[in-house]
Write a structure and sequence with these properties.
- There is one protein chain.
- With 357 residues, this protein is of the alpha+beta class.
- 45% of the residues lie in helices and 17% in strands.
- It has helices at residues 2-7, 9-30, 40-73, 91-119, 227-243, 253-263, 288-299, 304-313, 332-335, 338-351, and strands spanning 127-134, 137-142, 148-150, 153-156, 161-167, 172-176, 181-185, 191-195, 201-207, 219-225, 271-272, 277-278.
- The strands form three sheets. It has a five-stranded mixed beta sheet.
- The protein starts with a helix and ends in a 6-residue tail after the last helix.
- The structure holds dinuclear copper ion.
- Dinuclear copper ion binds at residues 133, 136, 172, 207, 209-211, 215, 218.
- Residues 133, 136, 172, 207, 209-211, 215, 218 line the site of dinuclear copper ion.
């Protein structure tokens, strides 16, 4: 066998690379490389990837099999110290191995450029969403929906979205794997990227650029809703931001406050009997109006209302003794409207024994 292959090297190489190509293609195409497809761009990008595999696996396999074959078939017999035969090139072969890659690479770049311009195409009626990265969270606002702000990304299915991506500090990378969308946030620049979600559900928003110690926690979710549900979400959020949620709670300010306490995460860390919470990570709030707000407020030169408001907006400014520093998120000032914070402050002081107006 080895003698035959040595006499007919082209036959041996063709045989080996043929088998290896089939095996390589079968393996690479059977792997499920990507998560679910949730945007109109996903199919195009996944097809491009498959074409790249179909073209590059045989080339890789051809190069490797020729190299391995040569190592095996042309190794020097023991004791043979003679030089190899001089070779002065092979014009035909060189023309072939320059032309074929040139054609392949040119065709691929044209194909990739067409895919890119398709998936990034501008469309009328696109919804603009501003995305802001900061160490270590994403926040979103919707200038076309009454400047709505949110720390959750919610999108309607089937509508073109133009993300305008910025950063408050370092370089992050805004990545939604299921949309096949990724773009860096660069200080001083606004990067635009467009996508049309076409699948309902909840997908990942990930930071894909090492941006500091909390990089791995910079993960949120995007929810894609049917358009009517999206409109309802916008209406609810807008109203809540405008009046602190009072109208949505049927005019009951206490119910609105309790809703905010439960929905925005206060409940996860603070004990408050009125809201049925017994968490112990942060200070308990059941005697806030009678004790802490008065005592610590006085210490900081604040009224009880100012003390509570400041504790929500700037939690690191004063930490109740014996409680951990830098545990409460500093994002509430951005995520809640002034009216919502007001509702929350009044609620907390009312249910903890005070008589806040
Ligand atoms: Cu932001 Cu990593």
């Amino acid at each position: 066998m080895s003698r035959l292959l040595r006499k007919r090297p082209a036959l041996g190489m063709a045989l080996l690379s043929g088998i290896a190509t089939v095996v390589g293609l079968a393996i690479s195409l059977s792997i499920d490389w990507f998560p679910a497809q949730a945007s109109t761009a996903a199919g195009d990008i996944d097809n491009l990837w498959d074409v790249l595999l179909i073209l590059s696996v045989p080339i890789f396999v051809l190069v490797m099999s020729v190299a391995l074959y040569s190592v095996f078939a042309f190794r020097v017999p023991p004791g043979d110290m003679s030089d190899g035969a001089p070779i002065h090139g092979n014009t035909k072969l060189e023309v072939i191995w320059v032309t074929i890659p040139f054609v392949i690479v040119s065709a691929l770049s044209v194909y990739a450029a067409v895919v890119l311009s398709d998936i990034e195409a501008k469309e009328k009626g696109a919804m603009i969403v501003n995305v802001t990265g900061q160490q270590f969270a994403w926040s979103f606002d919707y200038p076309g929906e009454g400047k709505l702000k949110s720390n959750r990304l919610v999108l309607p299915k089937g509508r073109r979205v133009e993300f305008r991506v910025k950063t408050k500090d370092v370089i992050h990378s805004f990545w939604v794997p299921q949309f096949r969308l990724k773009t860096d946030t660069v200080p001083g620049l606004t990067t635009k990227i467009r996508v049309t979600p076409n699948r309902l559900g909840s997908f990942d928003v990930v930071c894909a650029e090492l941006c500091g110690i909390g990089h791995s926690t910079m993960r949120q979710a995007v929810r894609v809703l049917p358009p009517a549900q999206f409109a309802a979400w916008v209406a609810k959020r807008t109203q809540r931001a405008g009046d602190g949620g009072v109208a949505a709670a049927g005019g009951d300010a206490a119910a609105a406050g309790k809703g905010l306490f439960n929905d925005t995460g206060c409940k996860a860390c603070h004990t408050l009997a009125d809201a049925g919470s017994d968490a112990k990570i942060g200070p308990g709030l059941d005697d806030l109006a009678e004790k802490d707000a008065v005592m610590f407020g006085k210490k900081n030169g604040q009224s009880p209302e100012e003390y509570v408001k400041n504790s929500i907006e700037d939690p690191a400014a004063f930490v109740v003794p014996k409680f951990p520093k830098d545990t409460m998120p500093k994002t509430y000032k951005d995520d809640l409207s002034p009216e919502e914070i007001d509702t929350l402050v009044k609620y907390l002081l009312t249910v903890s024994g005070g008589k806040s107006k």
